[in-house]
């Protein structure tokens, strides 16, 4: 690749929440599994560990409702916490990025930096975003757009 991919965008709170989710998805799945096992044991204990079809007819909906409520509570808490750390100054989340074979040039209203590809720890991808990690907990968030395939090729070649 001999050209430069130029991106200019503003991060949203959803972009930032997706970034935060990259760190907790394994522990969130583990916690969900533990919650379901504990709930199942409690429900089985209520039935005296003699659950038949009659008991399962009410236990399955209870498990589904508890999972839905836990998911909704998690989302609301994540949104509140993320909103506080994300801030309200939209200009602080304006990014101008140039990616090329040489590296990544990043410019925001507050800072400017250049990163060689050797400084990239890893690249991750969600359904709607790329994450260029410079350390285990520090990443550049790039919303996907018409440059997806060119970015994937660049990441494959250098990251």
UniProtKB/TrEMBL annotation:
InterPro entries: YcxB-like_C. Keywords: Membrane, Transmembrane, Transmembrane helix. This is YcxB family protein. Residues 99-153 form the YcxB-like C-terminal domain. The chain crosses the membrane at residues 27-46, 58-77. Pfam families: YcxB. It comes from Paenibacillus profundus.
């Amino acid at each position: 690749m001999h050209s430069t991919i130029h991106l200019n965008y503003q991060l949203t709170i959803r972009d930032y929440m997706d970034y935060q989710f990259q760190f907790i998805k394994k522990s969130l799945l583990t916690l969900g599994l533990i919650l379901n096992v504990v709930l199942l044991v409690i429900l089985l204990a209520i039935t005296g560990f003699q659950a038949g079809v009659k008991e399962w007819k009410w236990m399955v909906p209870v498990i589904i409702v508890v999972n839905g409520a836990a998911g909704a509570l998690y989302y609301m808490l994540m949104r509140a916490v993320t909103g506080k750390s994300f801030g309200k100054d939209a200009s602080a989340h304006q990014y101008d990025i140039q990616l090329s074979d040489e590296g990544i040039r990043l410019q925001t209203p507050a800072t400017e930096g250049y990163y060689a590809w050797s400084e990239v720890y890893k690249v991750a991808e969600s359904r709607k975003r790329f994450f260029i990690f410079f350390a285990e907990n520090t990443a550049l968030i790039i919303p996907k757009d018409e440059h997806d395939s060119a970015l994937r090729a660049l990441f494959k070649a250098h990251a």
